[in-house]
Every structure is written in structure tokens, then in C-alpha cells.
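Dear all,

This email documents one entry for the complex benchmark we are building for the journal club exercise. For each entry we list the sequence lines for every component of the assembly. Then comes the predicted three-dimensional structure of the complex as a C-alpha cell string, followed by one or two observations. Please use this as the template for your own entries, and keep the labels exactly as they appear.
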Amino acid sequence: MTVTAEAVDARPSAGVPLLQAEGVIMRFGGLTAVNNVNMTVNEGEIVGLIGPNGAGKTTFFNCLTGMYKPTEGHVRLSGVELPPKPRAVVKAGMARTFQNIRLFANMTALENVMVGRYCRTSSGAFTSIVHGPKFKREEAETRERAQELLDFVGLGTSTDHLARNMPYGNQRRLEIARALATDPKLVLLDEPTAGMNPLETRQASELIFKIRDSGLAVVVIEHDMRFIFNLCDRVLCLVRGETLVEGTPDEVQSDHRVIEAYIGTGTDDEDDDDGPDDGTAAGAQDAEDTP
Amino acid sequence: MTVVLVAITVEAGGLVNIEPGGWISFLGAVLLFAASRLVLPKETRDLAQARLPGWAEILVIVILMAAILFGTAYALGLTDAWAFVLFLMLVTGVVITGIRAGLLSWLGHVTTRHKHVLTLAAFAVAFFFPFTQNGSDANMSIASQVLIFAAAAMGLNIVVGLAGLLDLGYIAFLGAGAYVGATLSTSAFATIGWKPPFMVVVLVGACVSGTLGLIIGAPTLRVSGDYLAIVTLGFGEIFRLSMFNLDGNNGPNLTHGPNGVPAIPDLTFGSFNFGDTHDLLGIPLARFSNYYFLLLVLIAFIILVFSRLNNSRIGRGWVAIREDEKAAEAMGVNVFGLKILAFVVGAFLAGMAGTIKAHQDVSVTPDQYIFLESAFLLAAIVLGGMGTVAGVLIGAVILKLLPEKLRFFADYRLLLFGLLLVLMMRFRPEGLVASRRRQLEFHEEDEELAVRVEGDIAEVVI
């Protein structure tokens, strides 16, 4: 972990807030899936977002990335308010991956990453048709950068493989490469190790450190506790759409409320069944399944 | 061949009247059929892998193209409908045998290895076709109709094949171009006084059509799938009815309503009049041949636009949208903008084709632009292979040429096309010539196919 420690020290701008989400509320009809969540991500920081199933993690992600328009609240990136449009959010410098992989299955690995470059290139129809100098330059740059990124995530030899033919772990990596291709300042990873074996999980955390060391901030949604506590500088625990605890991994790990939320107690379970919040959790779960 | 004998029997009034040649060819057909059954599937795969030296493969393409050229000329020369049907069956038989023997998939590999040769050869064939007609204009009339249809189909292919938008009113854009071409022509019935040179008319027609595309696209492209199909269908009808009613009774007289704009004179470029017969290499080329060459240039342009857009950042964006619209949006692809672009470019190209069509058809009337024409354009794309150049051209030729030659089928035309399309959807949904990406999209579960396609990609890259 020495590399990581050095990187932490070397971060020039640690502590400068990059992403600020304030009072984000997301209601679906009468259900409040995300209730008044605040989150700050500083430059060069890895922040974990944990919580039991249906806690509203993915819904919160969708609010951040403009897939949903939050009912209330603000999301700012580098102090600039983000409009609730995915494309504008990407352009502003925040890219994401999906909980259930959403690659362009019938494109090759390289083409997938090249699509990620779309928002950083601007060749129009005319120059594309006449093969103008701008088209040639941008096309070469796009190809080169895409190959670089594939090398970066360790898929340098799978360039011409179809995304749908790739092993599961590699598809996750490819999705990260595609997100990185948009030149983000902040990457949001939605369960990057879901369905992975321990080896792949370890490789994933190495990759995330590598991304951080290249100067980006990372937000990770995860269920794997060991993974997240090893990885993150700070952890935010969501339960039923509300922030339960926020702090360093150690603080969160030892907080009895977190343990309760995950494992539950006998009385708590009963509360769950009768409690008014039950519907909320179910609603949030639905929302997570639909993005 | 059995059908042949039956046909001859029916025509000639009995089996007795069949000439020896008929029996010989029947025997030959039976032998061929038996042979095709005996070909082992294993060999099929081997043949697909086979490679000849580069020059030999190029030679194969040239021979194939020459065969197509003379075959088409011969087929068009057949005046007897039954003879034409028999010829078609012969071709079908050859193709089926080719497929069974793996020859066609081998040809597919050869043609991907020598793309430029194929393109050049195809254009050479198309270019030399009028010279095989000895100045007869009957077939050239059909051929130029086919080219207009093919040009429109290629334009629609950008919308349907690349961007994946279902447009059922596309013929309206061709119509818009045709009406611009007609009203800006020197016809006595043209309603606009401005008579610019034809190159300007083409541009104006294309721009008017493209603007229409923008106006229609901007509000309607917010809906997708079936809804978009309905809205565009409605737009196609609106266009036709507008042209029908702009006759001076309701609003300005632009189009002479149901009478349309008749007597559109032939094009002239300098001293070159498209209506006259010109001699080239001793072979007379009449009116329709002249339009044929002009349309060939247009199609070359459309193919250029199509393939260059397809192989650019924009083409990648379109594929991404087809694959997963939400993910594309989340990766920063301008989904709405790209859809509009496809719509406008498609309309623009149709407008260009329309201006030429106006002069070639001599008159423009609203009933040339009915919904059925849009449906046929779409059918040509589906039949030939969405998103491919060769496929759509073949589809267009089939759908336009067959009805012209098989006039006695006219009553059953729609029935036959319906049947053909149903069979295609069942057995080969990706069309006659499949783009590899479309093939993958239509066979999501076929792992073997995916692996094979991956091998093909590697081959192209090498």
C-alpha cells in the first residue's frame, strides 16, 4: 500500500471540493427514494457509497449524473451547477458505469471506447464526408487515445474483440475505459465488482487506485465491505434514502448503526415490517432496477 | 426445372411437344440438384477459409461482375415473361448451389479483402450496361427507374439502416425534391418564375427537402420506435395531400393539384441535351441512357456520403444509439442531434434524387408519392440488408425490376412481396447481404456467429 500512501501525500489539491451534492431529494410519486442527501467529493479522493439493497444508492447516482432530475437539491461540479442532462454532465467532466453492464455489445472493445470520445471531439458531417484535415486528425487521436485507455485498464490485447464475447471481468474494465474516454474529473462506478471472484476484485481495486493516481476522483457504490474499506478515503452509508453515517472507513466500520442496518436486529426487523418507511425502501428498490 | 417442363407443357400443349433440349436440361438440373445434396457441410467451412493469390481473387471478382453485366443484359432482353421467370429460377438455383457449396461465403471473404476492386468493378458494370442495349431505350427506361428507386433507398438507408429510425413517409422527401425540380423548370406549367441552372435546382431541391426533414424531425424524433413510424407515415400523407390541394382553390397555386406539373423539358448541360441520342464509341445512347449516367453519378455521391458517415465519429454514435440509447446518452453522445442529422441528410439526398426524377418522368403528380412507395423503399432495405450498400442496391433492383418484367403478375405483386418479406423475416432477418453488425443484432444468442464475426474483423484488420 506504499504506492497509495505516497499518492495520497502527493495529491496537490486534496481537500478542494470537486463534487458537491446538497440536499438531494428524489421522490417517485409518494415514495421518497433519496431523502436530503449531502455528499462532497474532493479532488483525488475515493469515496464509497454503501447501504443495504434498496437504500437508494443507484437512484442517488442517477440524480448526480442527470439521468433523473432530482425533485429538490443541487449538484455542483467544480462549483458549477450541473443541469439534469446526462450529456451535459459528461461534458462537464463526470462519467459513470452501470450496475448491470451496459456496453455496446456488438461493437469491438476499441469502438466502445471510441464512442466515449464522442463528447471531446467535434468533427461534423461535412468534414467526415470530405475527409477533411480535422476529421483525419481527430480520428487518429480518438483511435490512439482509445488504445491508450485499453492499455491502461489492461485490455490492450483485446482491442478487436466484440464486447459481447469478452469475459465478465473484462467487460467491467471496458466499461471503465469507456467512462475514462470522456476525460472526466470524476468517475462514478456502480458496483464495479458485482459478480467478480476474489482475484478479479483485487484487480479491480488496483485499477481504481490507478485511476485515482492519475489525478481523478472516484465514487464507488459497493456491497463488498472488505473491498470498500480497503479502497476508500471516506465512506457514506445510505439507509432508506437517508445518510446514516459519513466518515473514514474505520469510523463507518465500527458504527453500530451500520451493522444494524446491514444485519438488522430482531426488533428492527419488526419495525421494518410495520414501519412507515417500508414502502420507501421498496420504492427505492424498484427505482434501482429500472434505470 | 420441373416447373420449366410444366410451363412448357402448358404453353405448348403437351409433354410431346417438348424439344430434346428441354429434356437434356431437365436431366442436367436433376444431376445438379443431386450433386448439391451430396456436398458435405464440412467442406463448406474449408472452402470459406480458402485463399487464392491476390490477382486470382481479383480475377474472380471481374469474371463475376462480367457475368452479372451480360446476365442482366440478357435477362432484360428476354421479352417472353416465362423465359424471364426461367432465367430467374436458373439464377436462384445457381445461388442456392453456391450457398450450399460454401462458394458464396468464400466470395464474401474475397470481396471484403478486395473492397475497392469490387466497388470499381460494380461501377464499371453499371457504366457499361447502357452499351449493351444498342440504343434501345425500353430497358434503359426501366434501368433509370431502378436507379431513382435505388438512390432513394440508399438515402432512406441512412435513416433506417444507420440511425435505426423507422421512417414510413420517406417518399415525401423525394416528392419535395421532384416538386422543386418541376416548379423551377422551364415547363409551361411551372408556377415559379425563377429559372436557375439545374445544378442550383438540385441544391435548392435538396435544401428544401432537408429543411422539411428538419421541420418534421425536430418534433417527431422525441418519440421513438412504432410511434415514430406512425408520425412519419402521417407526415407522408400530409405532404401528398398538401400537393394535391395547392391548386389555387385552397391557397396558392403551386402544384396544379391533382394534375401536377406536366411537360417538364429535358435537362440541358450547355449544348448537351438529355433528350437527344448521342453516339459514344459507335453505340447510340438515347434519352434514358443519359439520365442513367446522371443518376449513376448521384448514386456514387450518395454511397460516398453513406459510407463516409458510417465510418466516422457520427457513424459510431449511430451504432451506439441503436445498441443502447440510454448508455449512449450517458457517454455523452448527442442522441437527439444525431437522429436529426440522419433525418436531414436522408431527406437532403432524396431531394437531390427528386429533382432529377422530375425531369426524367416529364411530369410530377401527387399520386406518384403515395404511402405504398415509402413501403416499397423500406422493403428494399429490409430485403437487401439494412445498413449495407450492396444489399440495399440489390434489394432495390429486385423490387423495382421484377414488377416491370413480370407485368402479368401485377395483380399479385403485393401478395408476392408480402410473402417474400415474411419468408425473409423467418429465415434471414438481416437481409440478403448482411452487415456484420446487423447480423449480430438479429442473432443476440448466437455465440458461434459472434466468434466467427470476430475472426472476420481480425482478418480485415490484418
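Observations: Chain A is about 45% helix and 20% strand. Chain A touches chain B through 44 residues (CB under 8 Å).
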